[in-house]
Amino acid sequence: MIRIAVLGCGRIGVMHAANIASHPRAGLAGVFDIHAPAAAGVAAKTGARVFASAEAVFASDEVDAVLIATATDTHADLIEMAVAAGKPVLCEKPTDLSLERVNRCATVIAGTKVPVQLGFVRRFDPGHAAVRKAIAAGEIGELHQVVITSRDPAMPPPAYAAVSGGILRDMTIHDLDMARFILGEEVAEVFATGSRLVDPALMEKLGDYDTVAVVLTTASGKQAVITNSRQAVYGYDQRVEALGTRGMALSENRRAHAMTLHTAGFTDRAEPLLDFFIERYREAFDAEIAAFVEAVEAGQPPVVGFEDGRMALVLAEAALKSIAEGRVVRVEEMV
Q1: CA dihedral defined by 134, 138, 144, 149, rounded to 10 degrees?
Q2: What pLDDT is attached to residue 60?
């Protein structure tokens, strides 16, 4: 039984705590949040212990590993503390909004055998993972192109948008990691374009974009095309497509069920898309915890490691540079 403590009891921390508590080979060792009522609420539902501080979590002999779901600007510090305490860690993305800070963290934890897993949950989605497996098995021949569509159902609250780091570091970063996962090769060049179409006034004020497209190219010429929008009125749009010389693999949107209705007046009426990321990636979040538990049990590197998080941020920074300078950016400029 791997005893895992959760740091951060916001929406995603609450979900992780419940997932850990229900895992057959994991136990919820306790929770901590700087907002004490949030931690108390989780404890009341799960019976978990409430820790007085992050330091108390890392010092506890009753904690085998930690899950970090705190504010982004605390992630790197907490990862370093966890590794220093010998506690395996699963940390939500991104590691930090600053590539410089992430690089310093990489230096601090270099050479450690303590498992550090990054929360790129989409790799664990059954459909997305099946696309990667189909490519690896040669079912679509030689991979040429990947198309990733990721659109939120609505703009985030202005207060969140102001501290999120912007669409590329906050939202697109998931798709940048997915592109690396599906391509199976490192990206060599990045070209991006950004627009302010959904809420131009807010985006102008924040220096951000609500609509972006990114083209990634590997050294061998394989391409990944990412399209993002902060607002898709029809729901949470999540699709991954891989084109090869012998065919295509496609991971589609998810709905509550697969029934479609056909009448004299219409065809193919279906349930709406699942609401947002917690609902859409329900199975993936469970699989993510399972993968972390397996890595801790085996003392092996996790399937999504610290360097994967760092490289996703490198690509996000390259995309920002591409938009700002209106040109293709070579990844080697950023690393």
Answers
A1: 0
A2: 97
Residue 271 per-residue DSSP state: P
Asked if 116 and 109 count as a contact pair (C-beta separation under 8 A), the reply is yes
335 pLDDT more than 80: no
Residues 84 and 233 in one domain: no
Given a contact cutoff of 8 angstroms between Cβ atoms, the answer to whether 277 and 124 are in contact is no
3-state secondary structure (DSSP) of residue 241: strand
Token pair belonging to 312 = 């996703």
Indicate whether 85 and 195 sit together in one domain. Answer: no
Q: What is the CATH number of the domain that holds 261?
A: 3.30.360.10
Domain end marker among 63, 95, 114? 114
CA distances from residue 183 to 170, 186, 189 in whole angstroms, order as listed: 21, 8, 13
- Is residue 192 over pLDDT 90? yes
Structural domain includes residue 163: yes
Q: What is the rounded radius of gyration, in angstroms, for the C-alpha atoms of the chain? A: 20
Helix (H, G, I), strand (E, B) or coil at 260: strand
Residue after which a domain boundary falls, among 67, 87, 114: 114
Cβ 120 vs Cβ 277: under 8 Å = no
Q: Which domain holds residue 61?
A: 2-114
Q: What is the pLDDT of residues 58-113, one digit of tens each?
A: 999 999 999 999 999 999 999 999 999 999 999 999 999 999 999 999 999 999 89
Instruction: Decide if 58 is inside a domain.
Output: yes
